Amino acid sequence: MSAKANELGEIPVLMxxxxxxxxxxxxxxxxxxxxxxxxxxxxxxxVPITAAELVSGRIDVPLGKxxxxxxxxxxxxxxxxxxxxxxxxxxxxxxxxxxxAAKFPGFRPVATFYLNEDLxxxxxxxxxxxxxxxxxxxxxxxxxxxxxxxxxxSKKEVQKEIGxxxxxxxxxxxxxxxxxxxxxxxVPEKRSWAQKQDGEYDFKGVLxxxxxxxxxxxxxxxxxxxxLRVRSEGKIKENDCREYCSTAWLDRLxxxxxxxxxxxxxxxxxxxxxxxxxxxAKEYRIYGRSY
Length: 291
What we know:
It contains eight helices and 14 strands. By secondary structure, it is of the alpha/beta class. The protein has one domain: TIM Barrel. Helix 1 runs parallel beside helix 3 (93-103). The longest helix is centred in the middle third of the chain and has 19 residues, at 155-173. It is globular and about 55 Å long.
């Protein structure tokens, strides 16, 4: 066992919005910024996993490596598209991820895409696009039909927004989604409205907008229906991204590596320092290995 393994450490769940050649809004990331951030993750020993893998605890990354979840909201054209040969369009998020993975063997080219009604602006090719993503290990997630503020909607309206998107995804792929992300990070009056509706959807995990890395799924404080995320952005003077966005958090985790999730290389055990034993959730104690 590696003395540095800590599977009760924090896992960054990065949140991306539009990917563009040149960023226009604060939530945008340029293609260069995305490429640079993914390269940094690869160089620092991170291995992408999906949100579904996070919530299930199916974290299978090599010894000494760190899981990271890459999430892309709103299914915009900069995330994904297929060219006339059926390959990802150049400079989309998927193409950039595949490019970085080719340079860094072991850096899994997977991500989770939270979908709205206009599916990457692919029109009648949307079904083929979603199936391509699934076949290549990417996760499809629900992000509502029209991206409303769910905190302002009734139970019926919340369920219509989520159920409508789920129905579209199901009709195009034949499969249900596993995870859901709140538009704007806005939680409805009752969380249960967004978690499950009989016959429509039944999520295993729900993501917030958030401001810090997620707890380990094996930590007693982990709430799979309120998973925190970190906005992808550089440290700039004008707002809280000096402290709370991806560049700042990756710097912090690099400076204090004992706080981040580091794999023991065995997906069937959960290794951690003995000092953290109280943090292990009861249902995972049978798999715990302290040192």
